[in-house]
């Protein structure tokens, strides 16, 4: 299977702290890959580096074969590498559906000249976006909440909306930072089935997650970081019995 993300010798220091240290790994296209490790291992920093929010000190990041480590976060996102974000405060006053319709960039209707001169084209585009938004809401199971105000959703439903906003942009690779954190057990099950569905629709998923049940059930491959480095990569069962991984989670105490 082809690699969609390739990371080579990636490093980033914050003052005296080497947050990411010569990190190397790759993610296969169409996979669900887990990224785990103890607190402070460097997982979120790695996501920030890959999505262009933080610049690496050295190393390479390739997305679908193309170097992206010098690109802005906006350019990385436009290539199809997206990450979820919390719903901004202003958007919480809008409905779920409106939140999705705001995602597509460069809409004709954004330009007053187009609205006045190309009304038919603007309406066609709006109709198309509405159709895509309804499909995305169906996929994440939020169709019934389409006209609800985003602020009134539960914590888990807000996570689904964050995911839905990402899907509107038709990503190829989606980075999810602790998608099940603060979500109740019933909704975690739903979220897992949604993530499988999203993956089956062709989106590669790279997931940081502390819930090991989620990692074990969802991921075909798991990458383990500790102190800025990748210390193991393999199937969930191989990772579970890896001595170095167990030691990292036990704080360096031999098991
Ligand atoms: N902007 C920053 N400035 C200074 N230090 C930072 C910065 N971002 C991260 N760090 C430090 O880098 C190290 C790695 O942090 P990071 O958040 O990447 O780890 P993590 O594996 O995501 O941890 P957790 O699971 O607790 O979220 C930590 O020691 C953290 O304090």
Description:
The protein folds into two domains: 3-90 and 170-251, 3-Layer(aba) Sandwich (Rossmann fold), CATH 3.40.50.300; 91-152, no CATH class. The two termini are 35 Å apart. A six-stranded mixed sheet has the order 6-7-8-3-9-10, with helices on both faces. The protein has ten helices and ten strands. It is of the alpha/beta class and 255 residues long. The radius of gyration is 20 Å and the shape is globular. The model has no long low-confidence stretch (mean pLDDT 89). The longest helix is centred in the middle third of the chain and has 22 residues, at 119-140. The structure holds adenosine-5'-triphosphate (ATP). Adenosine-5'-triphosphate is lined by residues 14, 17, 19, 37, 39-45. The site of adenosine-5'-triphosphate has 11 residues, from strand 2 and helix 1.
H-E string: EEEHEEHEHHHHEHEHEEHH
Task: Identify the bound ligands.
Answer: adenosine-5'-triphosphate
Helical content stands at 25-40%
Largest sheet: 6 strands, mixed
Strand content: 15-25%
Order of the strands making up the biggest sheet: 6-7-8-3-9-10
Keywords: ATP-binding, Nucleotide-binding, Transport
Family: Belongs to the ABC transporter superfamily.
Protein name: ABC transporter ATP-binding protein
Organism: Mesorhizobium hawassense
């Amino acid at each position: 299977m082809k690699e969609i993300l390739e990371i080579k010798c990636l490093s980033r220091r914050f003052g005296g702290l080497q947050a990411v240290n010569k990190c190397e790994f790759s993610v296969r296209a169409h996979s669900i890959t887990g990224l785990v490790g103890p607190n402070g291992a460097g997982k979120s920093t790695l996501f920030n580096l890959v999505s262009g929010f933080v610049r690496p000190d050295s190393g390479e990041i390739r997305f679908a074969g193309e170097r992206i480590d010098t690109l802005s976060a906006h350019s990385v996102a436009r290539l199809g590498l997206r990450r979820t974000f919390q719903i901004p405060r202003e958007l919480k006053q809008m409905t779920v559906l409106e939140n999705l319709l705001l995602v597509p960039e460069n809409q004709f209707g954004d330009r007053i000249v187009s609205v006045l001169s190309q009304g038919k084209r603007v309406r066609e585009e709006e109709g198309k976006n509405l159709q895509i938004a309804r499909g995305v809401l169906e996929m994440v199971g939020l169709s019934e909440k389409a006209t609800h105000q985003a602020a009134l959703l539960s914590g888990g439903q807000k996570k689904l909306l964050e995911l839905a906003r990402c899907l509107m942009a038709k990503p190829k690779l989606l980075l999810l930072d602790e998608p099940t954190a603060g979500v109740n057990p019933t909704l975690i099950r739903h979220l897992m089935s949604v993530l499988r569905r999203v993956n089956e629709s062709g989106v590669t998923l790279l997931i940081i997650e502390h819930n090991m049940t989620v990692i074990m059930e969802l991921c075909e491959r798991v990458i383990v970081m500790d102190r800025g480095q990748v210390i193991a990569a393999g199937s969930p069962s191989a990772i579970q019995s890896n001595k170095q991984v167990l030691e990292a989670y036990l704080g360096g105490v031999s098991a």
